[in-house]
């Protein structure tokens, strides 16, 4: 019988807190660990995701950082603004989160949509981003097949949040399809059953619309404006883009480092936390 993987087991023994902060009027849920006096690190999840994406990364990073994993604007238990969400909306919310916790600067690590937002934040607010990690990040291309797949799986999961539809959405993220990811599925199913979440997901899916996506995409001119030291993490089995796309992103960012994690899909921080945490901390703690 395969070992049961539990979000709570991942957090057992970790001195963490779950709470809400007021980010310029937006009630924002977070998981936080680490001494508040240490440098700030913010983890940002992907489209339709939530803070639990980083349950396996809080403890190691909390040794060195005041570490926050937030439900982004319109996601999880954070307030839903009720309009289509573009990258600028997420960046503004991120800046409001930094203001709310009193952080003038922070290292930002984003996966998928979170990486897109983190990169845009580093371009628009360079003085506030100390170091940048782009983890299977979105925002560099518009693959119509991938975009349609994201919309189909995501809307199916919220319109009928059965175990099967939510599990299909989670398994799509992962390289190892033999695992059931029961606890992550249960966590996400509870979120997707929240009142009003069908409309919230439609707003989240705005960036999968070709016209909206086009005006939010990052190209060479944008990437080369990034001045923060940057790590690009990619995987062998990412369902959204191949390894060459990750390398292309890294090539456009001055001085960026590229690391490939084999045997992982879209959530390397969860599928192989030991490797991810090691690479991540080596980069963040570099002098």
TrEMBL record:
Classification via InterPro entries: AB_hydrolase_1, AB_hydrolase_fold, AB_hydrolase_sf
**Which domain of life, per UniProt?**
Bacteria
Q: Which GO terms describe its cellular component?
A: membrane
Enumerate the Gene3D superfamilies for this protein: alpha/beta hydrolase
What is the residue range of the signal peptide feature? none
Q: Name one GO molecular function term.
A: hydrolase activity
Q: Which UniProt keywords apply?
A: Hydrolase
Q: Where is the AB hydrolase-1 domain?
A: 39-273
- Please give the name of this protein: 2-hydroxy-6-ketonona-2,4-dienedioic acid hydrolase
Organism encoding this protein: Mycolicibacter nonchromogenicus
């Amino acid at each position: 019988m395969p070992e049961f993987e539990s979000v709570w087991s991942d957090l057992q023994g970790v001195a963490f807190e779950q709470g809400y902060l007021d980010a310029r009027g937006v009630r924002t849920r977070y998981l936080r660990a680490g001494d508040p006096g240490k440098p700030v690190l913010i983890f940002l999840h992907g489209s339709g995701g939530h803070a639990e994406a980083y349950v396996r990364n809080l403890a190691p990073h909390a040794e060195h950082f005041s570490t926050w994993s937030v439900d982004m604007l319109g996601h999880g238990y954070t307030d839903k603004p009720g309009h289509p969400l573009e990258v600028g909306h997420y960046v503004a919310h991120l800046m409001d989160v930094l203001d709310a916790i009193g952080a003038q600067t922070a290292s930002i690590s984003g996966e998928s949509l979170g990486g897109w937002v983190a990169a845009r934040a580093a371009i628009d607010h360079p003085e506030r981003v100390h170091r940048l990690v782009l983890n299977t990040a979105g925002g560099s291309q518009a693959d119509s097949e991938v975009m349609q797949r994201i919309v189909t799986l995501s809307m199916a999961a919220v319109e009928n949040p059965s175990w099967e539809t939510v599990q299909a959405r989670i398994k799509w993220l992962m390289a190892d399809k033999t695992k059931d990811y029961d606890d992550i599925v249960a966590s996400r199913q509870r979120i997707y059953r929240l009142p009003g979440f069908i409309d919230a997901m439609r707003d989240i899916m705005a960036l999968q619309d070709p016209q909206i996506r086009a005006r939010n995409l990052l190209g060479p001119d944008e990437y080369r404006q990034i001045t923060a030291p940057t790590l690009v993490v990619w995987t062998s089995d990412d369902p959204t883009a191949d390894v060459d796309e990750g390398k292309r992103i890294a090539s456009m960012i001055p001085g960026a480092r590229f690391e490939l994690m084999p045997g992982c899909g879209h959530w390397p921080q969860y599928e192989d936390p030991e490797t991810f945490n090691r690479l991540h901390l080596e980069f963040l703690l570099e002098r």
